Amino acid sequence: MDSKSFININAELSFSVLVAWGILRAYGKFLNLSVRAPRWAVAVNKIWVLGIGVAVFGLLFNIKSDHLNGIFWLLTLGGTVLLLLRIRDYRPARTILLAIAPFALHYLLEFLAKVLGNGLLDEYDDAFDTAQGFAFIWLATFLLIARSQKKNLEAERLLREEEEQNKRRIEAQNAELERLVSERTAALTQQAEELRYTLTELKTTQAQLIQAEKMASLGELTAGIAHEIQNPLNFVNNFSEVSAELVQELEEECQKAERDPELENELLADLKQNLQKITHHGQRASSIVRGMLEHSRASSGERQLIDLNALCDEYLRLAYHGLRAKDKTFNATLETHFDPNLGQVQVISQDIGRVLLNLLTNAFYAVQQRQKRQEAGYYPTVTVSTCHTSEGSEIRVRDNGLGIPESVKQKIFQPFFTTKPTGEGTGLGLSLSYDIITQGHNGTLTVDSEEGRGTEFVIVLPE
């Protein structure tokens, strides 16, 4: 073989090696050989070794260049078939194997026809061309099918990975939820124990606060009584002194030799009148003390017929004097509008007294706070009125104090809610009053207020 022929063989074979390397690289990437068959992927990258081997084989045995190309391509096709059989579990690989089978068979037959000669290739040239065209069409069709299969498999793989990720995520979330539930259960158990303990403490504290509220109410009542009782005691003291003087004058008159009967009768009449006034004011003081004792005693729960007008008038003055005991400078106008036809009402007098004392104390506190603003032309006024309506006996307690803001009007009957500064109220007075009226007497207690103008509480006691 001359040097020119050797160069031609090497050039043609080199071109075939380069084409085969490109095709196999594309198929290797398509089939992901680096993962499915790593050794075969290395072999594909070293296809040039096969080309060198075929070239040396052709040089040693003086084989024609077209025969060497055929041998190279047959070996390449054979290796490809073995590779596809190696990864036949992969569906696109089986499809590609099916795609190249006709092409490989056609190429083998054509190569044998060239090697054997005898004019077979020329005689059946049309048949070989038709078969070649069919092989290429078959190859292209099944390559497209393989490509579609790979896309579907890739989509399925991604879907499985996503499902697997979701499954792992759900398992992780379930594990986390179980941990959180366990922690939450333990925390709730501990909180339940703490709440039971706190509830016991709250009940104890509530009882103490209710007692404190009652004692505060009793303190207000006592302060009012102390001032209210001072008036009859002053009368008793004054009339006692005058009566002592009258007795002394009468004794002196009796010791005279010439007694004046008219003077003695006049002195006796004055003494009798003074004693009557002492008795009247003493009884007044006794009734005040008796009212204080009734208020301080626990409610018996028994209803009695009482004069509601007299009860309202008494607690109006007691509440007023109770505030004056704290603030000597405080003065207010007390107005009453009592229905003379109201008659006696059957109620628990101690409880209604507590309600009236609480409402009136709050009313005097409200007008006192507004008075401290020193508004021009303002004079504190508290009004108590009663009347008989179709719903029952009605008591209205009105003041022209600061009024109640709309934001807190709905809360004033809630336990422990107070608008007074810390230390001036427990927040139980109105709550207890509401319970006494609504639950103890099946009545109603409502409030109507305008901020900056005053407040009116309305009690309705059904018959």
Automatic annotation (TrEMBL):
GO terms for molecular function: phosphorelay sensor kinase activity. Pfam families: HATPase_c, HisKA. Gene3D superfamilies: 1.10.287.130, Histidine kinase-like ATPase, C-terminal domain. It catalyses: ATP + protein L-histidine = ADP + protein N-phospho-L-histidine. Its EC number is 2.7.13.3. It comes from the Bacteria. The chain crosses the membrane at residues 6-28, 40-61, 67-85. Residues 224-463 form the Histidine kinase domain. It is an enzyme of class 2 (transferase). PROSITE patterns: HIS_KIN. CDD domains: HisKA (cd00082). InterPro entries: HATPase_C_sf, HATPase_dom, His_kinase_dom, HisK_dim/P_dom, HisK_dim/P_sf, Sig_transdc_His_kin-like_C. Residues 145-190 form a coiled coil. Keywords: Coiled coil, Kinase, Membrane, Phosphoprotein, Transferase, Transmembrane, Transmembrane helix. PANTHER family: SENSOR HISTIDINE KINASE, TWO-COMPONENT SENSOR PPRA. This is histidine kinase. It comes from Hymenobacter telluris.
